[in-house]
Fold each of these.
Amino acid sequence: MKLIKLLANLGYGSRKDADKLIRSGVVTDVEGNALKSKDFPGLENIRVLGEELDPVGPLVIVMNKPDGFTCSREDPGETVYELLPHRFSKRNPGINPVGRLDKDTTGMLLLTDDGKFLHQVIHPKSGCRKVYHVVLDRPLSGEEGEIFGSGELVLESETKPLLPAEFEALGEKEALITLHEGRYHQVRRMFAAVGNHVLELERISIGGLKLPEDLEVGDWRFVTAEEQAAIFGPLPEISGH
Ligand code: URA
């Protein structure tokens, strides 16, 4: 791949911008020698302003999503993309969330430029469960486990019943819920269906991968190959959160 096209695909600017960047001498090899557009010393040997290049796709990012950020570029307000380097939103192929979280949902969000990975994670048949920690407005009735696990619950304005979900009460107004699909506002609507109201919602795992404990709210990092494999592995141990 040509250096200009590589830089443009990684979001460093349009091809014209990338050409300008190269001409300005800030695209160098590891020794700091300015590269020309025809040079290509290998991905690991290219520096932009002295920094290593961003990884070439396919890539997966894990973020600890804060409250108040939307996952859609079209929605008004702050978006999760603003927590990433600006150039990431100009990459080709683009980076998209692997199943959106509501603006006021926090916790584990994956983002990827890999369409196949995205579909594997969100497709109910992949067996990739998502676990949420929920804080409720009203005390649990004790019937939630049976109702959510029945496979018969139909949400308002839908006709297809939900797949059975696992439910574990953690306290009077606190629970874990494990979903095998991702419908619009699903957890909030499930609790609304049983006469309750979700006050706080946090996604704490996707498949076999838990939200990394060292990831502060608002932070993100690239997912390692091991973590990516873990997503499709057995469920992690999750106890009272
Ligand atoms: N269910 C919801 O209601 N909201 C989310 O953000 C995720 C699951």
Amino acid sequence: MELLYLETVDSTNKYAKENLANIKDKTLIYANYQTAGRGRLNRKWNSNFGKNLYASFVLKPSKELKEVYSNLTQYLSLVLAEVFEEYQLIPTIKWPNDVRINGKKISGILAESIIERGELKGIVLGFGVNLNCSQEDIDKIDQPATSLNLEINKKIDRDIFIKKVTEKFCLRYNKFIEEGFLLIREDYKKRAEFLNSSIKIRIFDKEISGIAKDITESGAIKLVDENNIEHVLLIGDIL
Ligand code: BTN
């Protein structure tokens, strides 16, 4: 894995997309500070100078788009969860790819594919991890959130954290691309929140309520509603 460090950038995802042709497959771009970090659903992802991890994997697995690529965010969420476990924490994954500790979000993932004339040029798998936030930083976030240092009462060494993530990511990446979500399904399910409980999922402008019954072989969530109708959703947000 190549590492590319940027002191300040608008967004590591945006940088990766704009410089894609000059960035090798399996490169991790990370920055000290982002001036315009982006989250899912056009949300902002705030930056704290020098404290946290703002990073994007650049991946170029093939020229054609494959279904498994949409599961890469889940693969990364599992990698991050396993890294948090190395800090003696018990993380959970909120489908599809938020990692939480004690119900509070600690990391977020934003994947983007770059396709030109029907050809896949690359996948940018961006992620942000709260590593060294103050309680004040956390209080500014508009949803329950936490930071690794606050969970273990210790300052986090970002370089060590990056090494753990990149090593773990590389460990099963090739196999994951070949075999798909099934490779990690059991590991993912072990950490998945809400299984067998009642949830509501927003998908575009629709909301579906039901019991989360399973995570399928392709990483979708299976929901059974009050009329016993089964919904298998590949995208959406648990509310
Ligand atoms: C989410 O909304 O949960 C996803 C947040 C993703 C944030 C990361 S930080 C590094 C990369 N660059 C961005 O602009 N966004 C992602």
